[in-house]
Task: inverse folding
C-alpha cells in the first residue's frame, strides 16, 4: 500500500517519514533473511487453469542455465509441437538436455494405450535424469496431465520425487495437479485465468507468445 501524506505535512516531513518506514521494513526483512540458512533442492509445481505454467517453468530453466547449472527437460505431451523454447535450448547441448516424448493431447491421438506407452517412456527418461548426478534441475512439462488421466503410477512418481537427490530441483507443470503431489511439493503456484484471447476473441495461439 502506498504511503499517503497526511494533510498539512510538509514535503520534508513526508520524505523523512517514508524513509523511516523503509528503514524499518529493511531491518525486518534483513532479520527474516538471517534465519533462512537451509539449502535444498526444491520440488516446484505450476498448476491451475490459467496460461503460463510452462512459460514460467522454462523461465526457471533459463535462469538455471545462466547460473551454470545443468538442466534436463522432458515434455510429456508437446512432442509434436515446434516451440521456441525447444529451439533455443537445443543450442546448449552441453548444459541442457530436452526430450519431447509426448504425442499430443489424448483427444488428438484417440488411443489410450498409445498415450499410456508414451507417458511411461517419458517417465522413464525423467527418472534417468533424476538419478543422474550431473543434473541440477529437471523439468517435467505437463506431467500433471498424465497423472490426471492415470497414465502413470502416482505412487511411483511421488516416491521417486520424495527420494530424489538432496540438491536436485524438480519442476512439474500442468493443470489439475494431484493432491498428493501438492502435499509433497515445496513450492506450488496456481495460475488462474482472467482473460484469454482464444476463448473471448477467437484468436489462435500466437508464435512467440504461446509456442
Result:
Amino acid at each position: 500500500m502506498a504511503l499517503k501524506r497526511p494533510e498539512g505535512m510538509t514535503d520534508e516531513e513526508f520524505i523523512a517519514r517514508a524513509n523511516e518506514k523503509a528503514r524499518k521494513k529493511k531491518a525486518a526483512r534483513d532479520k527474516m533473511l538471517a534465519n533462512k540458512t537451509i539449502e535444498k533442492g526444491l520440488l516446484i509445481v505450476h498448476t491451475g487453469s490459467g496460461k503460463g505454467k510452462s512459460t514460467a517453468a522454462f523461465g526457471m530453466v533459463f535462469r538455471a542455465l545462466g547460473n551454470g547449472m545443468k538442466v534436463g527437460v522432458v515434455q510429456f505431451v508437446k512432442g509434436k509441437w515446434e516451440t521456441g523454447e525447444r529451439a533455443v535450448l537445443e543450442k546448449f547441448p552441453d548444459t541442457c538436455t530436452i526430450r519431447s516424448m509426448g504425442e499430443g493431447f489424448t483427444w488428438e491421438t484417440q488411443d489410450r494405450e498409445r498415450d499410456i506407452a508414451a507417458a511411461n517412456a517419458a517417465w522413464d527418461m525423467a527418472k534417468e535424469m533424476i538419478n543422474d548426478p550431473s543434473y541440477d534441475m529437471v523439468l517435467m512439462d505437463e506431467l500433471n496431465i498424465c497423472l490426471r488421466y492415470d497414465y502413470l503410477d502416482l505412487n511411483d512418481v511421488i516416491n521417486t520425487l520424495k527420494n530424489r537427490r538432496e540438491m536436485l530441483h524438480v519442476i512439474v507443470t500442468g493443470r489439475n495437479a494431484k493432491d498428493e503431489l501438492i502435499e509433497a511439493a515445496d513450492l506450488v503456484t496456481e495460475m488462474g485465468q482472467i482473460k484469454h484471447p482464444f476463448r473471448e476473441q477467437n484468436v489462435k495461439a500466437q508464435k512467440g507468445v504461446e509456442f
User: Anything to note?
Assistant: Strands lie at 43-47, 71-75, 96-100, 137-141, 169-173, 187-190. The mean pLDDT is 88.
